[in-house]
Fold this sequence. Notes:
The chain is built from 31 helices and 10 strands. By secondary structure, the chain is mainly α. Strand 7 (about 615-620), helix 27 and strand 8 (about 645-650) form a beta-alpha-beta unit. Helix 6 (about 70-100) runs parallel beside helix 9, helix 8 runs antiparallel to helix 19 (about 405-420) and helix 11 packs parallel to helix 12 (about 235-245). The chain is elongated. Residues about 695-735 have low confidence and may be disordered.
Amino acid sequence: TNLPCPSLEKQYVVARHVYSEDSFAGDHEKIHRVPKTGLDHVRGYLTCDSKRAKAAVLSLLPIVGWMRSYRVREWLLGDVVSGISTGLVAIMQGLAFSLLASLPPSYGLYTAFFPMLTYFFLGTSRHISVGSFPVLSLMVGAVVTRLVPEDGPPANITSFEGLTPDQQRVLVASSVTFLMGIFQLAMGVLQVGFIVVYLSDTLVSGFTTAAAVHILVSQLKFVLGLDVPGINGPLAIIYTLEKIFVQITLTNICDLVMSIVIMVIVFIVKELNDRYKAKLPVPVPIEAIMTIIACGVSYGFNFEKRYDVDIVGKMVSGYESPIAPSVEVFRESAVEAFPVAIVGFAVAFSVAKVYSIKHDYTIDGNQELIAFGVSNIFGASFRSFAASTALSRTAVQESSGGKTQIAGLISAMMAMMVTVALGFLLEPLPTSVLGALVIVNLKGMLMQFREILYLWRRDKPECVVWVGTCLGAILLGLDLGLAVGLGVELLTVVFRTQFPRCSVLANIPGTDLYRDRKDHLHIFEPKGVKIFRIPSPIFFANIEFFREKLVGFNPLRVLRKRNKALRTIKKLFQEKDNHMTELDQPSDLKGLPFRMDWNAELPTNIRVPRVDLHSLILDFSAVSFLDISALKGLRMALKEFIRMDVDVYIVSCDVHILEKLHNCMFFDEEILTSMFFPTLHDAMLHVLGTHKEDKSTSWFMEQLSFKTVVPRRAEQAFVASNFSFFFIVFKLHVHY
């Protein structure tokens, strides 16, 4: 059976006066609030007491908060199991993603260790796995390739003297990461974590999809066993593909077969992990398993010499002493480092936000900036490269039972163990295996191409943002592509606000509700009344659009036509008019022996556009701000309607906008405060009360008894003008 809608069972009845803003203010006294000055805010910010000091400590060291409530018996085992599982993934991804950064694989293990040590104390997320992220690795690798190319001399940087090419690349990567950390730390200290809101989910999706395409192309040379130098800049992906296809006949079959086998197996097991994740205590660490098998097979069959397979080679054992960043690299890479900082934070914050909502705790965007800034500065000092988080690695940490960052600390300890003691076991690992692991982990990002159809069907401007960002990042590079995406996104915002979907409203009979008249069959729309809804802020760029959309005609043109007609009529009754009406001013009907109705049938030689409108109601409920330019345009538009005898009302105006109108001297003898009403229904009731009878009479609504003196010359002009209909409409008494 169909149950009745609950909303139909409940009713409310309100009996009150019809209010305008003036009458409402008279009946209900308003509290006068004095806004705080800038000095008051500074004084409040600098005031310190024990409560604020405690809050500051908890904010800067979130570990103090969650460690005090740590449930050892319930959470410790899950954190340990999660840390081990995540550690295996982090080690493999660190080795693989270091190839994207154009660095020796062992430095990927540094990125899995050092940044996590500081994030453990400073981060507010309890679930993200801090370490390498493929997009950031690729962006850092673009700088490394530009300054230390594989097939040419390095850039002219003093710090490069006496260093091997690998050491030069490590110096560039660590310097870029250090500068990235400085940017993030500065933004966190300045409390500008809100900047991430300008990177919409659509933009980030298109950007990461383009990054996945770049990553895929960059790994083809490892999978195919080709010697392709790194290329960066606009159209780099096209040039890279060209070089790959030129050498395609030189493909190393052993590398290709091994990569395909590993990708197929890893893909299948990952799909099984997702399908049976509810039954599995921890996901199967297939990357680690395949890496161990590949190392054993490569070592046993001597792939390096027998099949000319490139292997990882000598691993750095232990940790090297800290290094200082290169200021010269700072100057060369500042433009690239800033988008790396923004993207790294945006990805980490969005992933952290997902899990904070799922597990019901809060994260602080500004503190996350500080945490990642310090982590990247600290890690860069020990030769690690850009750190953020990876969704796949974080999913492993959370799904395998991780409750806090103790799991992240354990995963970092595992990376340390491999670096210090077990690194030599990875030396026979073919680089094609790492390339295959990178490619198979791109599935999630590449599947985002499906969003194009979804967005096209539901929100075409968002689809344009996605496609524009993706194409820009693919063809121009990730740094320029991000700028293109931001530009397209801002253009869509401008487009939506400059050309919003305006609507004409009508009353739903029997209610105080008003909806778009195109959407409902049964509506009440009084004759001569138009309700126009403005669904966006009004500012300099869209005020003319609204003026054109208001009623479908130009009120100034109508007013000028009326005044020209009025001049013609006045010449019939008086020799000279010493007070001729300006065309843009209100029509002066004084001295006429009749009442004018501009909608009646006029003489053939007088043409005035017909206007079937006596009241215009503007719904300001969605108008959030009004700038000075729009204020002037609105004032001009209202005056034009008022001067052509159309009553204008503004309803549901925000109190701050109303205050701004008062402060900017918006009101005068024509535009009155009585035009403003608190609700749309109040204004409609006022209009219906004012126009109780809608009389549509002839050109003269009412014939008056009058006596006037008309000179013979005027009478002759009257007859000559062929106003024959005058004798039908009224009787003119002329006294000589």
